[in-house]
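INPUT
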Amino acid sequence: MPKSSNSDSFWIRHLLRRAGFGASPDELQHYIKLGYEGSVEELLHPQSVNDDELNRKLKMQAFDFTNIDDLQRWWTYRMLSSKRPLEEKMTLFWHGHFATSDRKVKNPYAMYVQNMLFRKLCLGNFHEMLLAVSKDPAMIVWLDNQQNRKGKPNENYAREIMELFTLGIGNYTEKDIKEAARAFTGWQAPATGFFFNKGQHDYGEKTFFGETGKFNGDDIVRILVEQKATSQFLARKLCKFFVADEPDEALVQRIGQVYMDSNYSVKSMLRAIFTDEVFLSNKAYHAKIKSPAEYVIGTLKLLQINELDAGIPKAMEKMGQSLFMPPNVKGWDGGAAWIATDKMMQRFNFASKMSTERFSEVLRQSTPLQIVEKQGLNNSKQIVEYFLALMLDSDVPASTQKRLVAYVASDINGNPVDRIPDEKTLDAKLRGLTHLIMTLPTYQLS
Amino acid sequence: MTISRRDLIKNGLGALALSFGANEFFSLAAQASNLAPRKPGSSKILVVIQLSGGNDGLNTVIPYSLGSYYQARPTIGIKAEKGLRLNSELALNPAMTGVHELYKLGKVAVIQGVGYPNPNRSHFRSIEIWQTGDAEKIAETGWLGRYLDVCCTGKEDLFPAVNVDPMLPKTLFGSKVNVPSVSNIEDFRFLTDPQYKPDRDVQIKAFNDIYDSYHLKRPHMELLRKAGIDANLASDKLHQLVKKYSSDVPYPQGSFGNSLKFISQMITGGLSCPIYGASLDGFDTHTNQLRAQEGLLKQLSDGLSAFHSDLKKNGLDDDVVVMVFSEFGRRVAENGGRGTDHGTAAPVLVLGSSVRGGVYGSHPSLTDLDNGDLKYKIDFRNVYATILNRWMGADSKAVLGQRFDELGFIA
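OUTPUT
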């Protein structure tokens, strides 16, 4: 594949920012050994990767899945520590696609069950996924299918499954919604399991997308999955999530075709995306605004902060992404919508916290000061170059690099110095430098 | 090769010719406009409140004289004696006591049956139609964003409008202006290392210099650059303002009450800003609607009431008009879960001491329906045109693309 002039490791870093949440230096070494194609295949086959260590760690934390704070922490923990980054990234994709919020469901355990469902089927067959989601208890509560009864239909699920989960707006009629709502009558979840309530199901004939029959929800799901509009809708959404906020239209068409040709295989669509020339080009490189999850988890990985405190999900929430609580059934809009003025400030302040916090050695492998020593950096230019390369591929204007060097080569009051007067000042400057780098426009890009 | 920390310090770090001393925090703020405090009575202010999820209009302004209302809603119809009467046909939801008091003082316009042709029942498309003022095609800018584009051209305003909602609504998207969003003033402050206090100014100076010349060919670059600069400028300015005035009027607890309180602080603090946006979410009441909607309408009404008192106390109530809208009303007949599905037309409320209170338009029929839904009576752009022409002093045609008749709720 054409990957222009850049090295394998350059594109592997790009891949890991998209197919994962960035990479720590150790993780990066692992994938560089596999090579680009090898990395793609390992990411696409999470079951082949042993993640026992994560599971052991999770067990030790004894999370309470009936508590939403614990649940959020549990997931961020997985994002940070799983050796199967694409599995977590796709779970996040599906969470944003089938956006369900605990604000209404008010049952963290049901949200956990749904999250595990997304994880289990994340790279599988879309037909299987859509059917499972239609029977998922949290979803049934979220879109009111519990109250969808024969003769008294509730249209909420029927509308959103077409508008937001499959076809996209404009590709169905109000009549289709009414017919589909009838087909989903009696699909209930009184406790934490799916229950088909025969007494509430409308067994009458329905006409839907040119087919007529005594349709049940399964039939609606099957018909929706087969539609070309669904292939386009899902392909566009995956391209927006993985490639660029404004994806290349020809790429969307190609990926939609893969969906049709592969019997709705998500794995095939993703393989096609990650190996497409557009993904490996300037059209995709640093072409997406990081989501708060990417910003936060990616930062922890880069700075080699190993463990999470309870403040991490809260920080993401302040940036506009509260896990298990998307703003509405459309999920997070992403792209430019992440960059409201106050959300930008929240990013800066998370950056400040991460660069200034005095983590214990258990939590953090190395401080910036230790990194500088380890790397043998011995002047302000080398230091700035090293951190810019590490944190954002040095993709900054020349003036920025120069100005950061001036910042490091000044004392605590901003007076230029030939020599950093003491270790304390060096520590201040290194912490300030990492903070400033994380506030740069390029650092907001994935 | 590694060197020790001591060696590193001894060898010194690169010298630099540049010199910069301690700075005022974001001294650039001094160059921004909006700095001169706004004088009461000198300009008009509009506050736009979006009720997200599709507020049920029929249980907000209740047509209690119509038997068909109770037939369509056997379990969720609100009894005539419970409603807060507006006239012999209409009553407000019982939770809206604050708005009812304002109505009695002639400060609330109730505009009935507001909608648009070929109603769309998708939350997201319908809200977009309301926000952009374009019911035919997907417009990239909002109606108030275009107003700002037209009226503010050439001015470098830091606060062309302020959005206090967590998400910037498309209403405020302009092609020339950037509207800042500040949902929580407490968190809206640039933090640096508390252990190295003097370095704060040095860092801020570096940040400003870097952002000033950050030009790179990547998507979103200008947006990001502007957001970073604005975040810091706006933070400085707003903290100064908020310090000036702290209201003793009690606002309802919760984020909506906080939003209105913050808007009041900005207005009373003298911010020169013509438009504020806020929202209240949770109106998608497909099931068990009664209690949920009443809780929300109480927040709305109590908030508006406090906001009005607060402004009045400061002699600013004549300067501010509030418009309340939702993406659609809900179906006339209730569904099987004591709730309602997505519908069409619904009332719009406009409030303020400069508003000519009363009921505008006629109520849509509850029996002559379009697919179970109300047929709209007034195009939402008639409401916008009235506000633009009569309140904002703008040319509504330049903003809405065509002329829409004005209503009488503003003199």
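end of record. Chain A touches chain B through 97 residues (CB under 8 Å).
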